[in-house]
Design a protein that fits this description.
By secondary structure, the chain is mostly beta strands. It has 5 domains: 202 residues, Sandwich (Jelly Rolls); 117 residues, Immunoglobulins (Immunoglobulin-like), CATH 2.60.40.10; 194 residues, no CATH class; 104 residues, Immunoglobulin-like (Sandwich); 131 residues, Immunoglobulins (Immunoglobulin-like). The strands form 12 sheets. Strands 26-25-24-23-22-30-27 form a 7-stranded parallel beta sheet. The protein has a 6-stranded antiparallel beta sheet with strand order 3-2-4-9-6-7. Helix 4 packs parallel to helix 5.
């Protein structure tokens, strides 16, 4: 008897171009199967795309490297047959009596013919739909099964006009498919248009009765003390007799690792006629004061495990289904004060700070590991929402799983974009895809696939466009809210009143549907093009009241140059040339990048006529390394100012902002906080600072110090320390505030910085702000600025590079298998000025999103005799072995005193010899902070975590603006 459950078919696949295979599908799966990867057959990437398979087998170059994409034939020139491919595999499955098995494709682009043991099944069109085939009667008696799938590209792959453009010639918009594949102003065209078996393939074995698409919903009463879980399931009786079923629903919660508490266990009985398909709704389950699921920065992401099983009389367990579920209520409305859409979670208003998301990888090389890194990066930046842009994907369950775990709310759009659905050059089809019924079928199937995830916050019809009227009306009807969710029930203390349907009987019923990304509380709310801008800005402009007119900006973009090592890893030497700085008659500089940077959509650091070149403000870059380092300085300043400017006017003018965009699905050079190789830019850490739940900041227009409290709790007994540091290491200005109380969900303005108005201010200076607890000096927020006088620049930082202050670094390493956790304790040992006595005691350790700092702490001895606590998380203490019994201390000698400026760690594979262009980085790496600065005497602890490839010994290096050359940490 085969075990009940799912078997994923993700290994052992072969692929071949259909025109090179001389046999048909029946022969492939009976008498003439391929047996090994020999021409025309090759190892296939499944899940994946045709182009991904060709890249894996080195039959085409890497399209994301340099200009190599230009050497790959486009489907418009080759014809659809060139990218029509066979995929072949085998699997073992031999059933016992009364067992049934389905072959499942979670998504194929765009249509396919499936052959199993000589039997043919046609899979209909549509990129975003699931397919399930009952193969019980097709399985081979000996259990050895041959499977071949012939995959066809989209019907309308389109052609790329010479001028490029948003979505090429827009033909792809006629299909229900991802529209970015014809190229955009941030993306090169994907030559096969993502043809392939791009999502999970599996077989599921059940008994006589199968569970299909359960729907979970929760309702809340008495101020979230009384909560009900609703659940409706679809049951299919595949047998020829009446099935007497026991339905069980169990809700449990994990108390600690591998220890669970069962909160509810309910059993119901139902009879199902032969061959029938029924919907069954369980009686609602009551919870008193359950642990709620909160977005990142508002609380913990509590998840319960809901397991549903069906037992059939005379057979036993027939099928089982389980899913993590979070109790939470998401509401939104158009705020009367700002005109922006205001979100509430569990009754608490949440100021949205997030980003636009396209997809993880342009060749759809999607994996749980990559998704986990992507989502954790967003949580690490203190973001609380991700918008899945309409020209990309209906994101996969794995994406949502990690959003559930890390607390990222998700705005999911359907597959409409204005560029491909009603405007553009050439003008696109205003009526959307040709097959409206197919669009709605894919939309409804997507809703069923994703609706049980607590992170899913709202559905949106399209990007900068609404769907055609009939589709829009159907989506509004399908996604109408259940009466319990039409308005807040927080103050309702009455008993539950009967309604027509249980909430779980709706297709969704718990989330709002918005017709388009610039309607109903987003941008101007009317669909006019009032999102953006998408380029370099003067940092102070973000704080001006007239910078953006509307309450919620769904897209505002900026620069995103990666580090030099990424340029060398993704481009040939001719791509390492930095831009030519062309001086214009109006005094502004125009950047002229090399052709490879242009191809990779580089966005310049100047906007002639408005913004002077921000890289040149630090001096003329000497080479690629210098250019990219200066770009990181600008990245940090730009994105910190963007978020701080928005949150400075929280609730008074704005309800939220989404940055365009957080990452690139290829090796692009704009709008990103980490590159396609998963190395972060400094903008990542600028955002991380600005978006922390409790934050102290400088208003760049008024020069007042502001305190931000986005938590639901009042912040009391706190004060601000502000210190100015010059390039000589002196502290000419020092001030502490009176005790402050900061209300919840509020930004307050405190005192004005007087230093620039004082006598003889320095042309370039540093400002260190700390928000601290008066009782124990614990630091809630630390924020470090580099500033220049009005009309000046940062060129004095160039000679400052030679003033290398001494550092002392104490490291502690934990290892479990290939996983490393390192604590780096960095101290600037420059002599402190005697004239002032700033607060040097700093017990603050920035939160690591994957760990809980409430775990036990452990201290270790430093050579100076002081004791400093480092949080050693409980799981690490239990599961990691300490590499060495004593902390290692490293001294970095210095030639000067003062601020250690713009320090950043990186992790590399240890090699005795390597070429300068060789990329030795180990990626991804999670840092609790990076691109940070330390004033004389100051101490900071940075946590570093990463996975090491087999056979590799890692080394950690520290670089800095005035610590160039790098220092290896033992």
């Amino acid at each position: 008897m085969v075990e009940i459950g799912k078997i994923v078919l993700d290994t052992g696949w072969l692929a071949a171009r259909s025109t090179e295979v001389e046999v048909n599908g029946v022969e492939l799966t009976t008498t003439r199967p391929p047996t090994q990867p020999e021409s025309p057959w090759m190892e296939a990437v499944v899940p994946g795309t045709v182009l991904g398979t060709l890249v894996k087998n080195k039959l085409v170059p890497d399209p994301f490297y340099g200009l190599e994409n230009e050497s790959i034939i486009d489907i418009a020139d080759s014809g659809r047959e060139h990218y029509t491919f066979w995929f072949f595999t085998t699997f073992d499955c031999k059933l016992s009596n009364n067992q049934h098995v389905d072959l499942n494709f979670r998504a194929i682009n765009y249509s396919a013919e499936v052959y199993l043991n000589g039997h043919k099944e046609v899979l209909p069109k549509g990129m975003f739909r699931r397919h399930s085939i009952d193969i019980t009667d097709i399985l081979h008696p000996d259990g050895q099964n041959l499977l071949a799938v012939l995959v066809y590209p989209p019907d309308h792959p389109g052609r790329i006009p010479p001028q490029g453009g948003q979505g090429g010639d827009h033909e792809i918009g006629k299909d229900v498919a991802a529209q970015y594949v014809e190229g955009w102003d941030w993306m090169t065209p994907i030559r096969d248009r993502n043809t392939g078996i791009w999502d999970e393939v599996s077989i599921t074995v059940t008994g006589p009765v199968k569970i299909v698409d359960p729907h979970l919903a929760s309702t809340f009463f008495d101020g979230y003390k009384r909560v009900y879980l609703h659940s409706t399931i679809e049951l299919v009786n595949k047998s020829a007799w009446v099935a007497e079923c026991s339905l069980n629903i169990q809700v449990s919660t994990e108390l600690e690792e591998n220890t669970f508490l069962i909160e509810h266990l309910e059993t119901q009985h139902v009879s199902i006629s032969p061959g029938a398909n029924i919907h069954y709704t369980f009686p609602q389950l009551y919870f008193y004061k359950p642990n709620l699921w909160w977005p990142n920065g508002m609380g913990k992401q509590h998840l319960y495990n809901v397991e549903i099983t069906v037992d059939v009389q005379g057979y036993g367990e027939s099928d089982t289904w389980s899913h993590h579920f979070g109790f939470r209520k998401i509401e939104s409305h158009i705020d009367s004060a700002t005109g922006g859409r205001l979100f509430k979670v569990n009754g608490q208003p949440i100021f949205i700070r997030g980003g636009n998301w396209i997809l993880s990888d342009g060749l759809l090389r999607l994996s749980k590991e990559r998704y986990k890194t992507d989502i954790r990066f967003h949580a690490d930046m203190n973001f609380n929402m991700m918008r899945c842009w309409g020209g990309g994907l209906a994101e996969r369950p794995e994406f949502y799983h990690y959003c559930d775990l890390y607390g990222l709310l998700v705005w999911q759009e359907f597959w409409i974009t204005g560029d491909c659905d009603g405007r553009g050059d050439p003008v696109s089809n205003p009526n959307g895809p040709l097959d409206h019924d197919l669009f709605l079928l894919c939309a409804r199937d997507t809703i069923k696939l994703l609706r049980n995830h607590p992170s899913l916050a709202l559905w949106v019809g399209g990007n900068e466009q609404v769907p055609p009227p009939d589709i829009n009306a159907a989506l509004k009807n399908d996604l109408q809210l259940h009466p319990y969710f039409v308005k807040s029930n927080d103050s309702d203390t009455s008993a539950i009143t009967p309604v027509l349907k249980d909430p779980s009987q709706y297709l969704d019923g718990t989330r709002v549907y918005i017709q388009g990304s610039m309607w109903d509380g987003f941008a101007d709310g009317k669909g006019d093009f009032t999102d953006g801008p998408y380029e370099i800005q003067n940092p102070e402009d973000f704080f001006k009241h007239d910078y953006y007119k509307y309450g919620f900006n769904p897209e505002v973009g900026n620069v995103g140059m990666p580090v030099a090592a990424t340029i060398r890893a993704t481009m040939p030497p001719e791509g390492w040339q930095i831009p030519w700085f062309k001086k214009l008659s109006n005094g502004y500089i125009e950047e002229v990048p090399n052709p490879i940077w242009n191809y990779h959509k580089y966005i310049p650091y100047s906007k002639p006529g408005k913004v002077h070149d921000q890289i040149l403000s630090y001096g003329m870059p000497k080479d690629l390394d210098d250019f990219c380092l200066k770009a990181q300085l600008v990245n940090y300043v730009q994105y910190r100012a963007l978020l701080e400017g928005w949150i400075s006017q929280m609730w008074s003018k704005y309800t939220g902002v989404l940055i365009w965009k957080t990452q690139n699905p290829w090796t692009g050079l704009r709008g990103q906080f980490y590159d396609h190789l998963h190395d972060q830019t400094a903008g990542f850490y600028g955002c991380r600072s600005a978006a922390e739940p409790i934050h102290v900041q400088l208003n760049l227009v008024t020069y007042s110090i502001e305190v931000v409290n986005t938590t639901p709790e009042e912040l009391s007994n706190v004060a601000i320390e502000a210190s100015i540091w010059d390039l000589e290491g002196e502290c000419p200005y020092y001030k502490t505030s009176e005790k402050l109380t900061v209300p919840p969900k509020k930004t307050i303005s405190t005192f004005e910085m007087k230093y620039p108005k004082s006598k003889n201010p320095k042309p370039v200076y540093f400002l260190l702000l700390k928000l601290y607890d008066v009782s124990d000096y614990r630091i809630y927020s630390r924020n470090f600025y580099w500033l220049h006088l009005s009309g000046g620049d940062y060129k004095l930082l160039e000679p400052f590079r030679e003033k290398r202050p001494p550092l002392k670094i104490t490291s502690l390493t934990f290892i479990k298998g290939s996983t490393y956790e390192m604590r780096m304790h960095i101290q600037n040992t420059s002599k402190k000025p005697n004239s002032n006595t700033p607060l040097y005691r700093n017990n603050f350790i920035r939160r690591n999103s994957s760990c809980d700092e409430s775990d036990l702490s452990e201290s270790f001895d430093l050579s100076d005799g002081e004791k400093h606590e480092i949080s050693v998380y409980d799981k690490i203490r239990r599961n990691f072995s300490r590499e060495h019994s004593k902390a290692k201390v490293s001294e970095v000698n210095g030639t000067g005193k003062g601020v250690a400026f713009f320090l950043h760690f990186s992790v590399h594979a240890s090699k005795k010899e390597h070429k300068k262009s060789e990329d030795t980085r180990i990626l991804p790496v999670h840092y609790s902070d990076n691109y940070f600065s330390l004033v004389p005497g100051e101490v900071m602890t940075v946590t570093i975590s990463f996975e090491v490839p087999p056979g590799v010994t890692p080394r950690v290096t520290l670089h800095g603006w005035n610590h160039h050359g790098g220092h290896t940490i033992p």
